[in-house]
Amino acid sequence: MPYTITEACTACDQCIDACPIEAISVGDPIYVIDDTCCDFEECVVMCDDEAIVPVEEAW
Fold this sequence. Notes:
The chain is of the alpha+beta class.
């Protein structure tokens, strides 16, 4: 189950540093998770803004 980053993102860099496969990159204006996301969940745990959610919950 891949994740996505919602508009609650404050671009704090914590998720980028947490992702073991570097699937997160700087977007405009929020960060973006690409198709290589493998559901490791480290980014979810590190996001203080609770801006990273499963794709199904984002819509």
